[in-house]
Amino acid sequence: MLPLAFLLAAGSDAARLPLLMFVVFVSAKLMAELFEKLGQPGIVGGILAGILVGPQVLNWVEPNEFLTALSELGVMFLLFKVGLEVRSSELFRVGGTALLAATAGVVVPFFLGWGILLAWGEPQMEAIFVGAAMVATSVGITAQVLASKQLLAATASKIILAAAVIDDVLGLLILAAVSSMARGSVNITELAVSAALAVGFTMIVATLGTRAMGKVVPKIEEKLSVAEGQFALAIGLLFGLSVLAIYAGVAAIIGAFLAGMALAETVGHRVHDLTTGVAELLVPFFLVGIGLHFDLGVFTDPPVLLLSGVILAAAVVSKLIGCGLGAIGMGWADAMRVGVGMIPRGEVGMVVAQIGLGFGVIKPSIYSVVVFMSLATTLVAPPLLKWAYRGVEPGAEAAEEPMRIG
Amino acid sequence: MLPLAFLLAAGSDAARLPLLMFVVFVSAKLMAELFEKLGQPGIVGGILAGILVGPQVLNWVEPNEFLTALSELGVMFLLFKVGLEVRSSELFRVGGTALLAATAGVVVPFFLGWGILLAWGEPQMEAIFVGAAMVATSVGITAQVLASKQLLAATASKIILAAAVIDDVLGLLILAAVSSMARGSVNITELAVSAALAVGFTMIVATLGTRAMGKVVPKIEEKLSVAEGQFALAIGLLFGLSVLAIYAGVAAIIGAFLAGMALAETVGHRVHDLTTGVAELLVPFFLVGIGLHFDLGVFTDPPVLLLSGVILAAAVVSKLIGCGLGAIGMGWADAMRVGVGMIPRGEVGMVVAQIGLGFGVIKPSIYSVVVFMSLATTLVAPPLLKWAYRGVEPGAEAAEEPMRIG
Fold it and tell me: CA of A116: how far to CAs of A303, A306, B194, in Å?
């Protein structure tokens, strides 16, 4: 500790960047390694590394704009990489189940969160915002667990990915609705336009993207003179669709995922490898970024701690029940996997809470409760996922699937 | 243009990051492609893209801390990647020539810059700072040209890389000396300590790094449970040595280069591929970052423009003569390649000028002259390099080398 503390204190301007990169990257990898050695998911170690080096414990690293940007790039490249391993036709095959799981996974948490806050004696608007924050699904963590364990080919994983895309659109609409309620008026036309734009963008890219890229990419590529032209095209599409996704009202990572999926059948193994390089560098910043925002403050106030525990339990159970019931047609085991996979709220839940804070409709203590719930659901999901996917072979369809040969 | 301008104006907070990434990356790649099609080095296109989207022309992108950080990471990964392709034993084999080339390449530009400024009637201190700024070599641009054309194996390329490392140490000492002169006192002991630290760090890592990594990396790696463990170790070493390099007084990219070289004989092809992915993403930010700082202001003031032209010519000729003469023992063709390869001053020259500006010993017009020289040398080097390396086969030793068989 001493030499590092000395270096950090003595840190010249020039050393700041590589030192920050070193501390974040190495702490995330060391903790991930420790957790893997203990038989736990490395991803939890990465998030805990963020709590450890962050303001709450060692105070080596403070959240800042640069780290936030690296964190966003990290989860964009992660979802892009996941998209590269998924065919849109496979998502559409499980589309009905995913729609059911996503919808039930939105309705159940919303009403449970709302009900609990009302029962706790909190005002109506605050209860609605907490309900809205419990709706969100942050698919990044689940995607990283599934990708690192090579479980993306399992049916349940496809349902999770499709449901996460749908969930993002539903979450956008709920956020738009509660935001206009907080402003005092709900404009149905505006909501309908938002819905049409988000659904339209997602559906068009998901249905036509693969075919369009299959025609366009090889044609452009054969004319390119720059080195690694296919990768350059892929990155251009990744950032381009991320921008368009935001303008269509959905998250940048949905655009990144759709970009990957559109290219899944076109690009070669080289693009996978180069993308993996970027993801390996940046995903630790995504994990540590989550941990940096952890606020241990809720532990100092017993009533807030109690509410945090209740909301956390409700957040876990409501997604399990909602998403699980939605996917129950696939069998109990897959339903459980889908339910667990949709538990993490991550940064999405925190954004909803921040908006509520901005409108002045939720108070700081409730904001802390939501932040705690968002991060705690993110921490509990990886071990639950590991348990739910026990017995599923890496790279194979889920255990319940009929064997293809024999 | 219209839709982009519209999007930029309408840009929500969430869209800013992917939009910035998109504009910088795609403009760099488009311009690189255009230049390659015209038979010119793509790297020049990347820098011109920065001028184009920067404040001087379209004003779509302003230099900011985030872009500066991505640019620094880009050149660090670039030098790390170059290091991975170089064996330290090969650098030591050309060490004598490199030392001669670096030293002459420091002495000639310094005195030429100093003399011109004095002849121009500028004060002594200002002349010394311009001389010091003309000493710097920014090896990033040359490294990118050589790496992309697979010319790193040529003898001249080895001399350039070794000379660039030595040049960085010499440049540090000159900067330390002129900075203390600007403060009014030169502390010889302090300079000697700086020299010992910089030379010591560089020599120890260059001589012992390869053997140490050859022993340590396989041992640690076989015990690792995290995925892509070798790449994680490589990144840790890259950032760790970059930090130590700065504390030893040399540039972060020298640390990154030494890290790559230390691992060159240990890590597998997978680490090369993953590193290439990161470099492919980030190097365009390095190139655009250079262009963003281009100041067209010197073109509006005829006397300043004249001085800029003279200084630019002196900067090119003095490195050609200095480094070329230093390497003349390798034959005329290699001497020319080394001279040309050391021409770019890049960000290093600008940093010296900034320090002079900070001490108040150089005036803004002379600062513009130095910035112009730094960037113009960076722009002229790639086509000159292409010309100097004509006839050298990619992946082969330089044409003058005796054939190994036959």
Answer: 14, 12, 65
- ipTM reported for the complex, 2 dp: 0.89
Instruction: State whether the Cα torsion A377-A379-A383-A389 is positive or negative.
Output: positive
pLDDT digit string, tens, across residues A90-119: 899 999 999 999 999 999 999 999 999 999
Contact: B15, A227; criterion CB under 8 Å: no
User: Quick one: which of A174, A271, A172 has its CA closest to B274?
Assistant: A271
DSSP letters for B242-278: HHHHHHTTS-HHHHHHHHHHHHTTTS-HHHHHHHHHH
CA–CA separation, A247 and B317 (whole Å): 52
Mean pLDDT of A47-51: 93
Rounded to 5, what percent of chain B is helix, strand, coil? Answer: 80, 0, 20
Does B15 sit within 8 Å of A224, measured CB to CB? no
Count the alpha carbons within 13 Å of B188 in the hemisphere toward its beta carbon.
0
- Please indicate whether, in this complex, the C-beta atoms of B76 and A18 are within 8 angstroms of each other: yes
The model's confidence at residue A132, banded by pLDDT at 50, 70 and 90, is very high
Residues counted in chain A: 406
Please count the other Cβ atoms lying within 10 Å of the Cβ belonging to residue A329: 12
- DSSP-based three-state secondary structure for A244: helix
Structure tokens at B368: 């513009």
Give tens-digit pLDDT for B243-291. 999 998 888 999 999 999 999 999 999 999 999 999 999 999 999 998 8
pLDDT at A69: 94
- Tell me the nearest-neighbour CA distance from A320 into chain B, angstroms: 29
Q: pLDDT-based confidence at A403, cuts 50/70/90? A: very low
Chain segment B212-242, per-residue pLDDT in tens: 999 999 999 889 988 899 999 999 999 999 9
> How far, in Å, are A153, A397, B47 from residue A91 at the CA level?
11, 14, 42
Do the beta carbons of residue B153 and residue B340 sit within 8 Å?
Answer: no
Contacts of B56 (CB under 8 A, 6+ apart): B294, B295, B296
Report CB contact under 8 Å: B236, A33: no
Distance CA(A381)–CA(A40), nearest Å, equals: 11
Q: B354-393, pLDDT tens digit by residue?
A: 888 888 888 888 988 998 999 899 999 999 999 999 989 8
| Contact residues for B55 (Cβ-Cβ < 8 A; gap 6+) | B62, B63, B292
Yes or no, beta carbons of B36 and A226 under 8 Å apart: yes
User: Which one of A12, A22, A246 has the shortest CB-CB distance to B15?
Assistant: A246
Least CB–CB distance from A226: residue in B33, B66, B69: B33
Rounded alpha-carbon distances, angstroms, from residue A282 to A108, B73, B294, B321, B382: 34, 12, 30, 44, 31
Domains in chain A: ranges and CATH: 65-388 (1.20.1530.20)
Q: Do B32 and A273 touch (CB under 8 A)?
A: no
- The pTM score is 0.90
d(CA A21, CA A228): 26
Tell me, rounded to whole angstroms, the distance of Cα A358 from its chain centroid: 23
A266 neighbors A217 (Cβ within 8 angstroms) = yes
Residue among B18, B29, B270 minimizing CB distance to A246: B18
Is the CB of residue B263 less than 8 Å from the CB of residue B232?
A: no
* B180: three-class secondary structure by DSSP: helix
On the question of pLDDT at A385 being above 90, the answer is yes
Please give the Cα distance from A261 to A160 (Å, whole number): 15
Q: Given B66, B76, B242, which is nearest A66 (Cβ)? A: B66
Question: Residue B396: what pLDDT?
Answer: 63
Burial status of residue A289 (CB atoms within 10 A of its CB: 0-12, 13-18, 19 or more): buried
Determine phi and psi for B54, rounding to 5 degrees: -80, 180
